Structure formats: structure tokens, C-alpha cells
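Researcher: Here's the sequence for the chain we discussed earlier.
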Amino acid sequence: MAFNHLPAGVHDALRPLSVRPVTHSVSMAQNQIPWQAGIRPSPRAVLGRLSTGAGRGTRITHTEHLPPRQGTHADWPSAIRPEVIDAIQSAGIERPWAHQARTAEHALRGESVVVATGTASGKSLAYLAPVLSTLLDGAEEPSGRGATALYLSPTKALAADQRRALADLTAPLGTGIRAAVYDGDTPVEEREWVRQYANYVLTNPDMLHRGILPGHPRWSSFLRTLRYVVIDECHTYRGVFGSHVAQVLRRLRRVCARYGSSPVFLLASATASDPAVAAGRLTGVPVVEITEDGSPRGEVVFALWEPPLTELHGEQGAPVRRTATAESADLLTDLAVQGVRTVTFVRSRRGAELIALIAQERLAEVDRSLPDRIAAYRGGYLPEERRALERALHSGELLGLAATTALELGMDIAGLDAVVVAGYPGTRASLWQQAGRAGRTGEGALAILVARDDPLDTYLVHHPDALFRQPVESTVLDPDNPYVLAPHLCAAAAELPLTEPDLELFGPATEELMPQLEQRKLLRRRATAWHWTRRERAADLTDIRGAGGSPVQVVEAATGRLLGTVDAAAAHTTVHEGAVHLHQGRSYLVKQLDLDDSVALVEEATPPYSTTARDTTAISILETTTEIPWGDARLCFGSVEVTNQVVSFLRRKLITGEVLGESKLDLPPRTLRTRAVWWTVTDDQLDDARVHPQALGGALHAAEHASIGILPLFATCDRWDIGGVSIPLHPDTLLPTVFVYDGHPGGAGFAERAFHTAARWLAATREAIAVCECEAGCPSCIQSPKCGNGNDPLDKKAAIRLLTTLLAGAPEQPPAAE
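Model: Thanks. This is the structure I predict for it:
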């Protein structure tokens, strides 16, 4: 039997909500909101109010106080035009911070640079000053378009927000700056104007990949004069997505060279490890890094919050901790009643909808005017819905928002006072990015991390040094991944025939891939160049987000109204027939999932249950790249093929989580070729660990679950990026084996990082299981919300003994990174 634990879009199941009634009086909400009276309480005071009440104080496991920091000023480089400096000063900024001035100096010298400083440190102005100055220089040329700039952001919301900020800043500069957003939401009639007249184009890597580069002849005048490429939030370009973007940027450099330009890259990142190295891998050019933050910062109070155990019991009778969803909804409610402007970041779209809905219901008990000031924000909304929410948040109309990472990278939110993070977001970099959304006026800020019932979250709230005393993670990406590189070589050949000198630009793996692409009749060599041979668009060969196909449209069956979209990879688990789908506070039942047409038909309903998909997984080893002994055990890294099939779904009561029933599903299997780390143990080791045959499956399964939950502490991923399988007797190894694999075609670097940090990773896994207060295993240590086997079997004590024996044979020095 194979016990599995899958990635790729499975959302957190709705666990018991048991929401505590709001105890604030109506009079407080209506008459005594402190900030409506002009009183701005400190973050400590706000946290003090949140921690009052029965059992509230004991939920705070640690409070970190980050002291305020003084700013360091400098002068703008002399080459910045005076009218740009005047415009900046008109916006209330007399002098730049030191890191802004240094970034501008490098940019004006023609050096690519990455500014990696804290959230709200003014990174945007650091690159805007030299860009605007250069564009104004070009506007004075006879053509009126002597220089252009391209801005790339990971989300549409961020590009739209930057456009708003840019309009305010450049209003005094007249018509010399012609900025425009060019993305999937741009009306067709506006696109031609953007191509012909805009000199500052804001877009995203997806549009560059599918729209601009394939149609580069229509962009020739823009590309011919391209001086700067701004890459905002560049730390988000990691894993498979980052590898795709790296190849898109190489295609851009190649097309620009065809038109005689060589743009300078200006990158902005949240604080990151080795930003110059990561930026260099992303762009393919040498990059200077600016990491010393010269901006001031108000006091930050950061609390770690663990929800209490409840009287309820879950799968296999395990104790159930109150959910991060319910706890975060309570905190959002209480903060709204205090008048504290708050964003609650949630990992899943479903979670964002639920938190907003719960908070609205509780606030209605306090003051009927408050529910309308709370909303959800997530991907999959229609463009007009997103824009309306963004305007409401900017204007202050909204007091609280429950949002996915679509907002984390979305907007520069002024005046935000608190951030609640519902569940560790997977990396320290992302956690600080989210927490940094508060305190943007230079005042103090409150951040709260609410732990999910999950091994990693439990570990972190009881080991604060792992969050506050460790550097942020390195950005992992692999542009040479053949699954990534091959379709981009085809796209490049379709844009301009590929020549021998081009191959070096795309990396060392290119030369080996070219014959394979010829054999598959994707490319054909004629004379000195390779040409694209197909009628279809080469850019359509790959989805750079790794969604695995066209998004599934969610359509209301009775009216034909489009509600939103779901990524193709998530469709099998979230919009299968019979699934409950939430959208802006309303619930729908999926009546039909048409995979051929990528449509899910739904009808509005109010079922008293949630749904959770179940699946099965098989894994086979294709190639063992590296293998090292751990005593008698073996630690391996290599290529595998994973076959997954969603086979059924559970219906659970909303309040208690009780399983009401299971329904079978008939969905096709999905296969994935990827990279994995795995370890095996021998019969003698099982005897030493006192793991008897009847306990072996549960021990392996528990170790697998916990190791996946802990891996994001060591690799730049979250548990939804990775999957696992544990098998008492695997047909390829003929031994008990635990696999952990990357949930992306070709791999994403996460399993490789696990291999190189295996001793520390598995030691932390063992500790996380051992210190958990439960008796036989719970979601805080060995149970998983993604388990396709219903968390059965699991054996906590046997898993601890097994990992102890495994670690006893670990080499003193970890394997050297390749």
C-alpha cells in the first residue's frame, strides 16, 4: 500500500469553526473606536486588548519587539533631472534615503542593480528616479520616443497600483512620461496606443511571454529604444515559475539585441539571501546588490499565536486544535471593532472567503455598518471585482481584508496598522513581506502569525529563533531545467530563427536539447539556423505559472454568468462534481466539471458541509543521480515519475468536522516527471528501532507527513509545492522507502535542497514530532490536511524511534551542494 501526500492546489479543508461570540458592545463600536477619536494606540496596546479574555493570553507563545530605526539620507545623483527631483519633493520627499541614491547611481551608470531592502523602504522610488529622468531626456529628442522602459510585476494588482502611484508622481512632468498598463485586462482598442506611444509600459512576465515577444515586430520601435527593464518583487520568481521567467528574460534580451538595444535591469526585492546571485541567475547578466536599508522604521510588535485545543476529535480520534481560519476571523473582527486597519493573509482562496464571511457575521452583531467594511480578495476574481476592492482599500472605505498572496504582492497600502498571517506562508521572506504591509506611515505596526494545526507551524511558534534569528532563504531557480528550457527554445525560434551564437545565451543545457527538439519535429535546421516548424504558436507550449493547462472557468449554470476561474492543476480537487465552491461570501455546488472545455458548472446552494478531495499516488524511480550511505540506510536524489488520481471526496459538517459520507469520483489520472529525495532503511535498522512489521506503515507514513511539513524551513517552498509517498516495500528499492518530491514538472530545486540539508531537516522533523503534546499524533505533528489515505495508518512513537535510528547513521558533514 502506498501512503501519499500531494501538492498541486489542494486547499486547506474547512475544519471545525466553533467561532467565539464577539463580546464588544455596540456602544464601543459606534462611539469609542479609538482612532476615530484621533487616538492612535501603540501596537503593544492593541495586542494587549486582543490578549484579554478567557484563555486569550495563553495563546501568545512569543512576542518579538523590533525597535524603531532612524533613517539615513543622501543626495540624488547630479544626473537626475531637476524637474524629476522637484516632482519627488512635491510628493513630500525632500531627500532620498541612502539606498535609493546608490541604486540610482548604478542605474545611471548603466549597471544592472538589485535593491533588496525591507518592505516600505522606498524601493520603487529608487528605480523610478533614474528611469523617469532618462525617459524625459528621450522625450526631448525629435522622435519624442528616444527612450523606453518596461516594468514587470508578478501580479496585475501590483502593476495597476504602480500605475496609480506613477500618475500622481509624474503629474507635474507633463506629457514627457506616457505610462500605460498592458496586460490581459487591457481593452483591445487601447493596446495599439500602448504599442505606438507609451514610453513606460507596465506588464507581467505572462504577457511578455505570450503577447509582446511573439509579436515583437509590432513592438519594434519600443524595443529599439528600451533602456531599462524594472523587475519588481523579484524574490517571487523562484522554483519553476522563476526558471520560466529567467528564460523569458533571455528571450527578451535576444530580441532587444536584434533591434540594437541592451537594456539595464533594475530589480527590487524584499530582503533576501544573496540577492545579486539570485538576480544574476534570473536575468543572465551581472548584477550589483544594494542591501543596506537607509529608511526609518517604526516599532514592530510581532506575536506568535497558537490556537487552543478543542474538545473535538478528528481522524483516528486525534485531538483537534482550533483552526487558524476561525482564530484569524476572530482577530480580524476584534481589530475592526477597535478601528484598526488590518489585512489578514490566508494561504487558500477558500480560507480568504471564509474569514471574511465569519468576520462580517460577527461584526453585524456589533454594528450593522461594520460588515460592509470587510471583504475578501483573492485570485480568480473578475477584473472589475479586483479593481473595486483595490479602490475601496486605498480610499479607507474598507477597514479589513482577508486576502491571499494575490494582495501580498499587490498594492502599496498606506495607513495599514496590523497584519494577521493565518498560517506560516512557507518562507521567512514571504512572512516578512506580509508583515511589512503594516506600518507604512512610519508609525508602529502589529503583526500576528496564527499557527495552523500543522507540524511546521507548531514548531515555529515554539521555536521563535527559527523565525527571528535566521536569515531569509535563498531564491532557488534552475533555468537549465530541460522541462522549462525546451519550450522556450521553441518560442525563441518562432520569434527569430535560432543560431549557434544564441545557444550560449540560453545556458549550457541548450546544445544537448537541440537535437531532441529536431527529432520531435518541433525545430528544423536550415543552413545556419533552427526554425519553428508548427502552425500553432510556440509560446502556447508552456504555461510559465506551471498551472498545467488553461484555467477552468466557473460558470453559474442557470444564468451563464462567469464567476471566476480555478487553475487547471487545482480543478480535480476543488471543482469536481459535488464540490462546494465559495465566491464572495456565497456558496455553490459544482454540478458538472467538463475537462475538455475547461468549464465547471455550478448552482448556488447552502449545503451544511464542506468537501475535501481524496486521491491515490504511485511513484517509480527513473534515475538515481546521487546516493550516499547513512550507516546501513541510503539517502538518494534523482528523477521519479508520480501518478496521481483523485478518487473520491468527503463531506464534512461545517461546525464539528464530522464526516457525513464519501462519494466516488471518476477522474483521469495525472502523471508528473519530477525530482525527488528518498531514503531507505534495512530490516536490521527496523529491529534496532523496535519498529515491528505491523507498525512499519504507520511509522513511515508519519515520518513522511512530518518531514514534508518541516521542509519549508530548509527550502524556499511551502508544503503545497512538494509531495510525498511512503511504502513499506517499494518495488524499485526493495526496501521500506520514504519519498519527498517536487510538485512541478522537471523539479523545482526543493528536493535537491532537502538532499543537501537532510541531516538538519530530518533532525528537526524528529524533534517536531517528539515535542508535540499529543499522545498518538495530531495535525500539529504527523497528520496532514492533504493526505489521500485519511491519515491512516500513522504511528507517532514508532516514527520517532525510526527517525532516531536513521539519524544515528547520518554523516557528520552534509553532502556538498552541487
